[in-house]
Amino acid sequence: MGDGKVGPDVSAPQAVRGGKKWRSVSSGGASTCGIKNSGKLFCWGLNHRGQIGDGSTKVRAKPVVVSKKTKWKSVDASWFNTCAITSKKKLFCWGDNAASQLGPKTRAKQSPKPVKLPGGRWTTVSVGSRFVCGTKTDGSLRCWGGNLFGQLGTGSYAGKSRPVRIGGSTSWAEVSTSWTHTCARSTAGAVQCWGRNTYGALGNGNVTTTPSPQTVLGNHKAVDLATFEGGSCLLDDKGQAWCWGNNAYGLIGDGSVPFTAEPVAGPSGLTEIEGGWRHVCGLTATGSTCWGANDRAQLGNGTLTSSPSPLEVEPLPAPDPAGATDFRIATVNALGNGHTRPYAHDDAFAPATTRMSWLADQLDNSAIDIMGLQEPNSDQMFHFLKAARGTWDVWPRPESGDDAVEAPLAWRTSVWEAVEKTTLTTQFISKELPRPLVRLRHRITGKEIWVLNVHNAPWDYQFKRDKATRVQLAKINELRATGVPVFYIGDMNEKRTLLCNVLKKTDLVSPYGGSYDPVTKRCTNPPSRMRVDWIFGSPEAAYSNFEYTRPPLLSLVTDHNMALVDVRLP
Question: Do residues 255 and 239 touch, judged by C-beta distance below 8 A?
Answer without folding.
Answer: no
